[in-house]
Amino acid sequence: MRILVHDYAGHPFQVELSRELARRGHEVTHSFCPGWTSGKGQLVAEPGETLVFDPVGPTEPIAKDRFARRVLVEARVGWELLRQVRRTRAQTAMLSNAQIPTLVVFALGMALLRRPWVLWHQDVYAIAVKSFAGDKLGRKFRAVAGVFAVAERWVSRRSAAIVVIAPSFVPVHEEWGTAHKTTVIPNWAPLDEIRPVERKNDWAAEHELDDTSTLLYSGTLGLKHNPTLLVGLARRVIDAGRPMRLVVVNEGPAVEVIRAEAERLDVPVTLLPFQPYERLSEVLGTGDILVVLLEQQAGAFSVPSKTLSYLCAGRPVLGMMPSENLASALVNRAGGLVVPPTEDSLDQAAAWAAEMLGNAETRDELGEASRDLAEEEFALTGCADRFETILRAASR
Q: Which domain holds residue 258?
């Protein structure tokens, strides 16, 4: 079967799925948008590999805060994806993390081409925009949320099948009349690519982090996150008598917010851009505690993939995130701590982090529990079987 898999962000586990489908004998083209700034997976073919990588869209960074220009870019990506479908003669396509303008153009074109496609629904964008309108976004985005709601429902109805990442998505699709073709498959992280490493590793030494306690955050920081919580947490841990350094691996406007807040609160901080994927295990291994952020408004419809990578890396995880989030349940099962993403929770989070930093044996135990849970939950074979079945049915 000829398959086009498009993941707009270029994340690791979508790439892993494409590799597995290619190993099973399918002709797979994996596309992504290089201009979307985020942590990316291994987007280069390995020797002897049949998987083809074919990026679409701009190579220069997309200005996420330039709304009108961004919509045009995203619509263009939809057009380029249609050209990919024709060029690769794909019998079916699957889109993940695709933006609403991309989906609208693509769904319309696929209807005209009479080709089936699968929506891998990672976020309900209409609900996300509505929840942040008037707060982090201007009031005018309430109208945008209404347009997105109509568009997202329309493209969902045009897809041959839908994969959602959490049961919380199902009521939305029941309302849209698309629940009959919706399957829940939780996200995962690549166990063979993100592995536990020694705390004192080469990456830690290169950045002078091998002999200091660290709280580490690696991943995107956007509307769904409050970056000042990271600095406030670090300040309280230091005040609790545990000298440490905050390490943040990220690119975008949040970097300057963290820099200014760290200067104001006198928190030692190391700010670094996204690192090469092949060094991610070392990056995460450098954190004595790995921190997840997620705003309350994004609780039910966003599962931070960084949490899944953290578990693979075998480190204790501290989540400042809604308790109802699917990733929160995983953190709790691994023995980590989940608290609400508010200033009022900082003292509780800091007390736990200070205790962990002072007890290497407990940290090691929680790290092993994290990895054990990842190995239990993230087996690729079962997930790939389900995706293969969905794609075969869609192609028919």
A: 202-377
